[in-house]
Inverse folding.
């Protein structure tokens, strides 16, 4: 039996979870998982996202605008990643599940 994976949906779910994790108190733990599973480029992107979210929190008091922008960026990143490296679909799914539990 063949399972069809809708990569854009996996990317969207992952993006929302990753951004949520970046804004959580457990972001360092999740960042280590991103580094181990997706590499240093994704780790750097995650650190940049956390920095932008925290900066926006200080500047606006919690405006969702920054979070929405970061989610959009992550959706594109993850979709591009899954197109070029489809073997990482389960890795992204696993990380999404971990991020949702934070």
């Amino acid at each position: 039996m063949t399972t069809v994976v809708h990569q854009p949906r996996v990317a969207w779910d992952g993006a929302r979870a990753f951004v949520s994790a970046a804004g959580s108190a457990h972001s360092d733990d999740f960042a280590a998982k991103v580094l181990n599973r997706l590499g240093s480029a994704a780790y750097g992107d995650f650190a940049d996202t956390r920095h932008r979210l925290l900066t926006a929190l200080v500047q606006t008091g919690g405006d969702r605008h920054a979070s929405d922008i970061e989610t959009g960026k992550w959706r594109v990143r993850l979709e591009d990643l899954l197109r070029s490296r489809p073997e990482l679909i389960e890795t992204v799914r696993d990380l999404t599940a971990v991020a949702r539990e934070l």
User: Anything to note?
Assistant: The radius of gyration is 13 Å.
